Amino acid sequence: MSKKQFVLDYCRAQRLERVAEGELRAIRSELQRQLGPRGKTSLAYIASVLRAAGYRVEYEDRYSAPVLPAPYAARLEGVLEFHDLGSAERSLLKLDAIYRDYRSAADPIGAKWVYALVKWGKLRAQSLAANPRVRAEKRIEKQEISRWFQVWLETPDLLADWLALRKSSGEFRALFGGASEPGE
Fold it and tell me: 136 and 111, same structural domain?
């Protein structure tokens, strides 16, 4: 039996509709008990299996993207990207525009989801920056991207000006040259 099938069968047998961290831990323990070393897995994996199967999962960590409810998912899914500096800048500017649209439309829930998405991006970038298995130059780039996300989270109105100043700084140019232009 696969881990995925075990997780789904367990939830059906327990008649779980909503799964929080406690239930995820119980599933993980039972998975390890039943499958031995082969059953070792992360809470994030279990949460992603259950979300894909339609369960309501109340669990967040730096590896799991926030689950965006309709109608926000249609507009926000796939917008957050940070493969490199250029994609991170384009993504952050796009998210900022969406955030401003939600704020001007008096939609605090939409604005909250944009904020959550940027926060998750920052955590993921930090995680990649700290991962010794990632190439050194990529870790430096992810650290820079994390800083951009943090600036937006603290002061979204200053991001565009701050980013222009940051990209023109000697430190930035020494690290990245002109590699951050949107569209590159």
Answer: yes
